[in-house]
Amino acid sequence: MSHFEFSREPFTPERYRSRVSDPVAGGYASFEGWVRNHNEGRGVQRLEYEGYEALGIKEGDRIVAEAFARFPIAQAHCVHRLGVLGIGDLAVWVGVTAAHREAAFAACRYIIDEVKNRVPIWKKEHYAEGDSGWINCEVRTSGAPAGSALP
Amino acid sequence: MSHFEFSREPFTPERYRSRVSDPVAGGYASFEGWVRNHNEGRGVQRLEYEGYEALGIKEGDRIVAEAFARFPIAQAHCVHRLGVLGIGDLAVWVGVTAAHREAAFAACRYIIDEVKNRVPIWKKEHYAEGDSGWINCEVRTSGAPAGSALP
Amino acid sequence: MAQLPTDGSIAVRIEYFAVLREHVGRAQEELRTTATTVGELYGELDRRYAFPALGRVKVAVNDEFRDWSSPVRDGDFVVFIPPVAGG
Amino acid sequence: MAQLPTDGSIAVRIEYFAVLREHVGRAQEELRTTATTVGELYGELDRRYAFPALGRVKVAVNDEFRDWSSPVRDGDFVVFIPPVAGG
How confident is the model at residue D5 (pLDDT cuts 50, 70, 90)? Predict the structure, then answer.
């Protein structure tokens, strides 16, 4: 079973708690990414996550496998939300358990960093002014149909 | 209101979620310490936490204040359990929110490290063999009344 | 893909995501190409659609990341991956 | 503490936690002492109770950490803090 999954519906970390519970674990480190009300100085009203799911699950699972290889951890799991999200909504959750907290923290940090860098997920922010943009793609649209971008 | 508290009853992190929620926060890092079934090679059946509460709350709150001074975080809170705990029970929870995950992770790590080192809490482990010991105090008892220790 | 090609071209399926999906105006298409690498295929599509400047784009074939010099074969499923932004 | 002392001694309250509580056999006591620092007070109690070897013990007076050379005054509330083990 993959240690990485997508969720098209809102979810709570508690739902996945059993995936990381372990009687040998003394430490549980987690990270949650929430939709915040601003980014780079602009007011954000909502955002959309789009994922290439078949490859994303493979790449996410590889990342967690790398964490298992690098750090002495007991369990690890990551869930990334897809779809339209509002301010404060949970976008991603990483949970890691380990006998000792150093490994739990290090692996949790590794997983979220790599997921953000490598898993094929795209984020479109909708701003207070009505425009929107795909983050990291430097293309902004004002709601008009796309097609006028320069080569 | 102090950013550190003790709980004599079992608690869930969800209960304190509102203490760290913040619309500017894009990242939530948390740590939970759970009772594990072993320590230093010995089977653990249960443990007790005893706290010097009046000083513990002050020192815990100072630690969180230090985290606020050192890292650009939005909210932070820590709760430590007291009393008798079984395997898998939640012993301590630290939650930190921040605009960016680096600060959330760093502050969360700082708080749990300092709490473990500085807050007056003591842990007595009860082992599978029937004996018990106060951790870090190098005194083991076999259930007999105390009083025979050497000067 | 029922008809056999006579010009040496192959049939591939492309799926577009995010900024590329919006730019092209569709989520996927099947097409015939004489490209032999995924890099050539991207160039061919870029000439047709004038993709926006996107920084470092990656490519996947049959749901695995591949180098730009990887071959493209008949029946392949190809995805061009704009810079990601998870989390 | 109703009677005024005539020997220069002071009244203090001690609370014991964890291994010290079990060793002494009680959670707290009030006592009179001629100690002038918390370090002297600890020495006096160690002679009486033969505390176990505990590594680095700290001390708090009136719910604040203090140096071992801090004065102890009439009415003070003193806690000796064995090595902690939270988390």
Answer: low
The domain C10-81 having CATH identifier 3.10.20.30: the answer here is: yes
CA distances from D61 to A55, C73, C84, D65, D76 (A): 61, 79, 56, 6, 7
Closest Cα in chain B, distance from residue A23 (Å): 6
Contact C60 A55 (CB under 8 A): yes
Domain B4-136: CATH superfamily is Molybdopterin biosynthesis MoaE subunit (3.90.1170.40)
Q: Which residues of B touch A104 (CB under 8 A)?
A: 31
User: pTM of the entire structure?
Assistant: 0.90
CA of D6 to nearest chain B CA: how many angstroms apart?
A: 32
SS3 state of residue D13: strand
Dist. CA A30–CA A112, nearest whole Å:
10
Check CB contact of D85 with chain B, cutoff 8 Å: yes
Among residues of chain C, what percentage have pLDDT more than 70?
93
Other beta carbons less than 10 A from residue A61's beta carbon: 17
Task: Find which of B139, B140, B141, B148 to mutate to test the D interface (most D CBs within 10 Å of its CB).
Answer: B139
CB contacts, 8 Å: B41 with chain A: none
Q: What's the angle, vertex CA C67, arms to CA C62 and CA C71, rounded to 5?
A: 65
Cβ contact C79–A55 (<8 Å): yes
Q: Where are the domains of chain A?
A: 4-136
User: What are the structural domain ranges in chain D?
Assistant: 10-81
A92 touching chain B per CB within 8 A: no
Mean pLDDT to the nearest integer, A70-95: 97
Q: Per-residue pLDDT averaged across D43-52, rounded?
A: 97
Q: Which residues of C touch A137 (CB under 8 A)?
A: 18-19, 52, 54-55, 82-83, 85
Residue A76 token pair: 């690890």
Tens-place pLDDT, residues B36-59: 988 888 999 999 999 999 999 999
Interchain proximity A29–B33, CB inside 8 Å: no
Any chain C CB within 8 A of the CB of A143?
Answer: no
Q: What is the ipTM of this complex?
A: 0.89
User: Between B and D, how many residue pairs show a Cβ–Cβ distance under 8 A?
Assistant: 98
Q: Tens digits of per-residue pLDDT, B84-121?
A: 999 999 999 999 999 999 999 999 999 999 999 999 99
Tell me the three state secondary structure of residue C60: strand
Token pair for residue C26?
A: 């569709």
Which residue(s) pair with B134 in the sheet? B124, B139
Pairing of strands C28-33, B121-127: unpaired
Q: Is D87 in contact with B118 (Cβ distance < 8 A)?
A: no
Which of B34, B75, B78 is closest to B60 using CA atoms? B78
